């Protein structure tokens, strides 16, 4: 349940890169996030980045914008 709620919070913060959208670039990014007890990000890593750097950067940025987590 917790992970599902966190993913919803992150998805609300995603800003799809305009150039990537214009070029029809799509992809997925798998990340590893370590949080402290207050929900602040301690570490964040793209464990499986997209082949498009802009998508990877936006995925990480969206997570940072969504913090702190419940």
Task: Give me some keywords for this one.
41% helix; 70 residues; alpha+beta; 20% strand; 2 strands; two-stranded antiparallel sheet
Quick rundown:
The chain has 70 residues and is α+β, with helices and mostly antiparallel strands.
List the helices and strands and how they pair.
Blueprint: H1 2-11, H2 18-22, E1 30-35, E2 41-48, H3 53-66
Antiparallel strand pairs: 1-2
Please, could you describe this protein's structure?
By secondary structure, this protein is α+β, with helices and mostly antiparallel strands. 41% of the residues lie in helices and 20% in strands. It is built from 3 helices and 2 strands, in the order H-H-E-E-H. The chain has helices spanning 2-11, 18-22, 53-66; strands at 30-35, 41-48. A two-stranded antiparallel sheet has the order 1-2. Strand 1 (30-35) and strand 2 form a beta hairpin. The protein starts with a helix and ends with a helix.
């Amino acid at each position: 349940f917790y992970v599902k709620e966190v993913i919803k919070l992150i998805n609300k913060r995603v800003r799809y890169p305009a150039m990537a959208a214009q070029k029809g670039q799509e992809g997925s990014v798998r990340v590893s996030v370590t949080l402290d007890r207050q929900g602040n990000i301690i570490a964040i890593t793209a464990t499986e980045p997209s082949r498009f750097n802009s998508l990877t950067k936006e995925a990480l940025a969206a997570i940072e914008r969504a913090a702190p987590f419940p």
